[in-house]
User: What shape does this take?
Amino acid sequence: MLQLTALYNHPEDKDAFDRHYDEVHAPLAMKMPGLRRFTAARPVPDADGNTPPYHLVAVLEFDDEAALGSAMSSPEGQAAVADLANFADAGVTMLTSKGQTLV
Assistant: This one.
């Protein structure tokens, strides 16, 4: 399995970010061909009340590198990438990694 992880920095307007992500961006990403699993998490403060380093963490899973490449080059993938400019103005870090399910 190959994972694409998106680490979204804290936006200035969290409500607008969340609304756009939930109503526009996530539905675009879910249309990508070959997507096996898609999870999104909004980290919460730690036990000491410290703000987490990211506002949102999304993980998209594909069978392999070829499947991820096809998804990203598809019209659906290109639309999702283009949409980042509409809401992720605080920045996003993308990581690609080989994943395994442990439980």
Remarks:
- The helical segments are 14-30, 65-73, 75-83.
- The first strand starts at residue 2 and ends at 8.
